[in-house]
Amino acid sequence: EQMTRFVFRTFGTDLPQVAEAITAFAQGRHPTYPDFRSEDLVMTEKELFRGRWSEDGREYQLWSHDGKSKVAAGDNAIMDFLKDRLICGIQDDYEYWAKNDWQPWAGKPVWVPRGDKSHHILLDDNIHNLENDSIATVRQEQKDGTYRTLNGQEIQECQGLYLIRVPTVEPILDPEWFVKEIDKAQQRFFEVVHDPS
Q1: Which stretches within the chain are classed as H helix?
Q2: What is the DSSP letter of 118?
Q3: According to the model, what pLDDT value does residue 2 have?
Q4: 59 CB-side CA count, 13 A
Q5: Rg of the Cα trace of the chain?
Q6: Smallest Cα–Cα separation from 58: which of 118, 112, 109, 124?
Q7: Which of 2, 13, 95, 181 is exposed most, by the fewest CB atoms within 10 A?
Q8: How many Å apart are CA 183 and CA 24, to the nearest integer?
């Protein structure tokens, strides 16, 4: 059975509100799902982090939500850190992205490990079909275990596989929209990983 993990990503300051809403849902306080309960999905401040690029832009780091302690640094350490969590939230580095003119390599990292170890998907309403303007930086694992940032054209090819643009109104009109889009991306992932030709 496939393990699903949830990592809420934002450039804004709304993670505490997101955590509050998810916790209400997990405790049966959502009006549409009053019978749903899952203590595993309760989000406290210890599940909230700040993601920051190092000054030279070579390393992504996770810090505690208050910014006082570094909890993981570098692609592999962050992958291991996220693997140990069912749910968490990351406030990504908007200032770094803006300072670098919205270039894809400065955006929210999405990791692509080799093989079929895991399938990361970023759902965002600000994914563009432009080579030099992307909210996501796709980091692909190489044979030696290091990660390489894909260029703008390569990132465009990740749409529908690792990146899903969210048309803001669609999920409101169709409550199953996210599930359908994730299913499509997982089907494509299976085809690419198991039949790369």
Answers
A1: 15-26, 75-83, 94-99, 152-156, 170-173, 177-194
A2: -
A3: 67
A4: 12
A5: 17
A6: 109
A7: 2
A8: 26
- Provide DSSP, 144-179: TS-EEEPPHHHHHTTBTTTEEE--TTHHHH-TTHHH
Q: How many CB atoms lie within 10 A of CB 166?
A: 16
- In a structure prediction context, what are the per-residue pLDDT tens digits for the chain, which is 197 residues long? 567 899 999 999 999 999 999 999 999 999 999 999 999 999 999 999 999 999 888 899 999 999 999 999 999 999 999 999 999 999 999 999 999 998 888 999 999 998 767 899 999 999 988 888 889 999 999 999 999 999 989 999 999 999 999 999 999 999 999 999 999 999 999 988 766 65
Separation CA 15–CA 89 (nearest Å): 7
User: Burial code of 69-104, b = ≥16 C-beta within 10 A, e = fewer?
Assistant: eeebbbbebbbeebeeeebbbbbbbbebbeeeebbb
Chain-centre distance for alpha carbon 90: 8
Residue whose entry in the numeric block shows the structure tokens 């596989």: 161
Residues 6+ apart with CB under 8 A from 35: 28
What region, left, alpha or beta, does residue 31 occupy, with left being phi > 0 and alpha being psi -120 to 50 degrees? Answer: alpha
What the block records as the tokens of 51 is: 């993601």
